[in-house]
């Protein structure tokens, strides 16, 4: 008797999206670790507080990538009894954890800067190697930020978009470190811890951007302009009016419900067919929409009055 094995179920769009996001995060994590090692090691050798601080920031970048990967593994799980709308918001929860880690990183960097201000003697060695390390890592950060922002936009990923902002801030931080090293070379050693404070402020700003984006999802902020949905729904021939449009969810997985007015003489079968046309048109126009609930209503003076008053 030959035993057959059922083929694996095909991957959903959400699973494919999550896999692409994880792949991007793994590549960026490896780059962040390499950048962190270079900056922290050379900063320790030369005594540069700002370079070490920038290295710490890159370590937290890599750690945040690990959290992002774990979050996406959970977010990619299909809907179940306990989570009928799926697990997409775990991507948002992961970004909140990243924001908290950024706050810790900002505190560590600011503490190092304060210690450098209070030390009676703070010797910094600035040489060609310092500039080679910082300019090289700056170039990597700029490249990573551009790549991550592009992929985040394409995949509508909160984690990639937030991390791209963070990486861009790191690039500005690296630039400030280079400027600080130049001032140290010119005989202003306090410029180094001052630049560390700039690092801390930049990290705090990144944390704010992450929390701001996460709040948009967790507070069910509208994801698609209602007017755009109305135009799309009313492009269907039998739809006389569309109202009460609501959207929520993550950037990559949007849930939508709306009301449409139809000819009262339509049969239930024909009205249902129109609803299906509206759903198909919306999903085609807005690929991020994963679920559409269409409320069918007869086009009567009473229904129009209720729609105008917003009582539905």
TrEMBL record:
InterPro entries: Cation_efflux, Cation_efflux_CTD, Cation_efflux_CTD_sf, Cation_efflux_TM, Cation_efflux_TMD_sf, CDF_Transporter. GO terms for molecular function: cadmium ion transmembrane transporter activity; ferrous iron transmembrane transporter activity; zinc efflux antiporter activity. GO terms for cellular component: plasma membrane. Residues 228-298 form the Cation efflux protein cytoplasmic domain. Its main location: membrane. Keywords: Membrane, Transmembrane, Transmembrane helix, Transport. It is found in: Membrane. One of its GO terms (biological process) is intracellular zinc ion homeostasis. The chain crosses the membrane at residues 24-43, 55-76, 88-108, 128-147, 168-188. It is a multi-pass membrane protein. Residues 25-215 form the Cation efflux protein transmembrane domain. It comes from the Bacteria. Belongs to the cation diffusion facilitator (CDF) transporter (TC 2.A.4) family. This is Cation diffusion facilitator family transporter. It comes from Cryptobacterium curtum (strain ATCC 700683 / DSM 15641 / CCUG 43107 / 12-3).
